[in-house]
Design goal:
The protein is α/β, with parallel strands linked by helices. The chain has helices at 28-48, 78-90, 108-128, 153-159, 179-197, 201-207, 210-222, 227-231, 242-250, 265-273; strands at 17-21, 95-101, 136-142, 162-167, 173-177, 236-239, 256-260.
Length: 299
Amino acid sequence: MAIEAMSRQPESENINIVVHVDNAEESYKTMKKLAAVGAIGLLAYSLFAQGLNTGGQTKEDWEEINFEFNSSILSDGYPSLLRLADLLSQHRDYRVKVTGNTDYVGSTAYNEKLALKRADAVKAFLVKYGVADNQITTAGDGKRVPEVDNKTKEGRFMNRRVFLALTDGGGRLIKDGGIGDIIKAIGDKLYQLEDRTASHGALNVLGALDVRILHEGLLGKALGIGEEAVRDEKHLRYIRGIDLAVEEVRKGAAQIAFLLKPTSVRQVADTSFSGGVMPQKSTYFYPKLLSGMVMYKLD
């Protein structure tokens, strides 16, 4: 099974990943190859993960969105915007209102238009990276609500910002503030959900699957590649042969190869009976059964 994955940070180079699902009979030689390829993966993490780590435990981990004077062009905050886009694309019931702000230079009417353009620029970026158009609304407060004093150059820069308000599917406010506050609030919600479901056998079984560790731990948290990109196999390839996976890296067709242990029938059964859903490609069995054989009795 092979995956090619692209980093979602705009200025980053592309990251191609080849992933192989191992057969149960593979020998110690396979483990040596796995160790060598794993080293490549660690190197890729150190090179490309800066700014894409999705742990986001505190709002200080995320760069806020500010604008240059008299401009509505996004010039910073890309990792934060990408992370927010990923979270919102996975949770379509969440809504965000983006309100643009300006410093005190210029007329009230002009600044209100500029503030709205800034909010619209943020919305356009989020929609481009997977957020539904109806999840984002925009507004402009102009220079009416400064965050800090406008007397200094630094203060004026801080006031050229956007303010976000996050609501749930019922319209209840979850959190408002800067983008760091919003990312942290969504993360807290997800952690609470995991805590509530941790007692279920499905989560325990799924947590032991190599493919889940790869998707959530490395592709998701380290490289910022969301579920939608994995599901659509954007820049992803799945292959079965170990030698082919390693060769793809050697010849430069991919930059990273991951060799995964096979999923057992017991893991599939335990997950299914406890109400869980297997991750994509975790049941990439070969040879494949014909569709009718698993749907109907043959007698």
